[in-house]
Structure formats: structure tokens, C-alpha cells
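Input record (one chain):
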Amino acid sequence: MTRLKARRSTPTQCVTLVNSAFLQEIKESLPDLRVLIQQVRRNGENGGNDECAAVAFVDGLQQLRDSLRQSFELEETYGYITTSRSIYRPVDDRADQARIQHRELFIMVHEIAEQAEEAQYRGTLSRDLPLLGGAVDCFESRWQDHEALEQELIADGLGMGRLI
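The corresponding structure, as predicted from the sequence alone:
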């Protein structure tokens, strides 16, 4: 009986590379999420006194979640490439950090949208708007930091230094 030796495979270390041209093109071709975030914030601020603004706040969060999903899916598909570390030497881990932020930001906006939908269903939306508005402010701050990181990655990949 022949014994087969177990083949030990070394764990493959992967690295994420940025396809800067595609990432920049994606950002330029999609609707500006800043405008949508500002609309959501404005409706949240006015929603305590205006039922229509409160409903627009919830609808805006749903639209923001869907737009963010589309943006991140395109960025993940065309803007980032995962490959073996043995082929390329990464300068740093900022691309991996940006991809992790995609998941964190999407979960964050998804949870805010769900909380707003639940508050609307329970009839407590006007009461809960200050808390939800604070969560939107926190999301916006983290999203802006993420966008700044991606702009740095694009600029570095295109050899342009900082774009902002």
C-alpha cells in the first residue's frame, strides 16, 4: 500500500492592489453621494416638525443605502484587485483598509436605515430623529475619511500625489 504524503500548502498571503484609473472613473460616473447625504441630514433636521420631511428622511436613507451598495460593488469589482503577495510588493495596507471600510460603512448606513424604518413603523420617528440624525452625522464623517483615503490611493496609483 502506497502512502501519499500530505502536501503542505503554505498559506497564501494576498495583497490588494488599486486599479486607480477604474476607481477614479467609477467615482466620476456615479451620482454624488455627498448631495444625497446632505438631503438626508436636511430632512432629518426638519422632520421633527414636518411629517413629509420625516418620511423623506427614511426614503433618503434607503436611497443612500442602495446607492452606497452600488458604488461599493463597482469599486470592489473594478477598482481593487486581490493577488498573491509573492508577485507584488505592497507599499502599505491602505487598499485593504479601504475595502474593510466598505463593509463597515455599508453596515452602518444599513443599520441606520433599518432603525429609521422601524421608528416610522412604530410611530416614534419624530421622537427618534435627533438620535438617527446623530448617527447620520457619524456615518458622514467616517464616509468622508474613507473618500479621502480612496482619493489618496487613486492619486498615488496615478503618480499624481494628492488630488484633493
